[in-house]
Amino acid sequence: MELPSEAGAVSALGVAQRIQARRPQMSGAMAKIAALLVEHPTAPLELSITELAARAGTSAATVTRFCRLIGYSGYVPLRVGVAADVGRGDVHASWHTDIGREFDPEDSPSEVLHALLSAHTRSVQATASSVDLEQVDRIATAIATSRHLDIYGIGGSGLMAVELQSRLYRIGLNAHAWTEVHDGIASAAIQDESSVALGISNTGRTDATIQMLSQARSSGAFTVALTNSPDSPLAAVAHEHVVAAAPEEYLQPDDLSAKHSQLFLLDLVYLLVAQQDFARTTTKLAASAMAVLPHRRSVRSRARRSDTSVTSSDTSGNESHV
């Protein structure tokens, strides 16, 4: 019968009190997290789990274990606890902490639409206003004249890598996208001074992408990083770094406005590469378009089927779908 009482006592404790109570049981890595939170109590409200882990010099898994040690089931409950400690522990505070400050749970679909449009527009505009066109042109020239292009990305960034690879391959470039670290490192190991390697990571702290790009640089390739942080580890291993801005996160950690900024820059790179040999570009695009044409239904055939369906219905008196 004492357990419920003990549980109630624990739940009544604030984050700082829980940290102090559990400090003797903490490992060295957890002690670093504790020290960070004591010095910056609101850090969980401002940082994602990976950002807080990086700030403390540890891993996201250690942060999760830390949360459990002090009585929270994970990072999100810890953030809510911190919000409660600073007087924002209601439902709206939890929403703003874990979803974002761009819109509210009671917003109408129209309000959500306009909030999204505003966030995405600001991200692309911020990216466009800060882009170094001479730098991007250098990158495009290096890609267009390279023997081989490797593109690395994990998760959502992997989708960006595959998209760019597909478009460049269609205009005659020897490009490969790697979304798995073992295959990517194997490819990176056989690149040389005539190769280009591009690593894509929103935060610039994805270990697999850092490893692949680092290996490519060690092999002699010209390396490029695409992230939202010029101070990221991925940027540090690249010859050139391009910033895709994400001014605010409205849906942590899956803010698609960051992806739109990435796509915007990748589209710019693609078009500048395409300009390098415009005759080859148009010839390759025409050839690939002709190859897939037989696999597409024409507008005329769809209209003919629609007319046949109407005629069948009119003559038989029954609906018929042909």
Sum up the structure in keywords.
5 strands; Rossmann fold; Arc Repressor Mutant, subunit A; 2 domains; alpha/beta; 322 residues
SSE layout:
Elements: H1 2-12, H2 15-22, H3 28-39, H4 43-46, H5 49-56, H6 60-69, H7 75-85, H8 91-98, H9 109-130, H10 133-144, E1 148-153, H11 156-170, E2 175-178, H12 181-189, E3 195-200, H13 207-218, E4 222-227, H14 233-236, E5 240-243, H15 256-276, H16 278-292, H17 299-316
Parallel strand pairs: 1-2, 1-3, 3-4, 4-5
Helix pairs in contact: 3-5, 3-6, 5-6, 7-8, 9-15, 10-15, 11-15, 12-13
Keywords: DNA-binding, Transcription, Transcription regulation
Domain SIS: 139-279
GO molecular function: carbohydrate derivative binding; DNA binding; DNA-binding transcription factor activity
Q: What report would you give on this structure?
A:
Residues 296-322 are annotated as: Disordered. InterPro entries: Homeodomain-like_sf, HTH_RpiR, RpiR-like, RpiR-like_SIS, SIS_dom, SIS_dom_sf, WH-like_DNA-bd_sf. This is MurR/RpiR family transcriptional regulator. The protein folds into 2 domains: 2-98, Arc Repressor Mutant, subunit A, CATH 1.10.10.10; 114-276, Rossmann fold (3-Layer(aba) Sandwich), CATH 3.40.50.10490. Helix 13 links the parallel strand 3 (195-200) and strand 4 (222-227). Mean pLDDT is 82; it is low at 1-12 and 88-101. It has 322 residues and is an alpha/beta fold. It has helices at residues 2-12, 15-22, 28-39, 43-46, 49-56, 60-69, 75-85, 91-98, 109-130, 133-144, 156-170, 181-189, 207-218, 233-236, 256-276, 278-292, 299-316, and strands at residues 148-153, 175-178, 195-200, 222-227, 240-243. Strands 2-1-3-4-5 form a 5-stranded parallel beta sheet, with helices on both faces. The protein is globular and about 70 Å long.
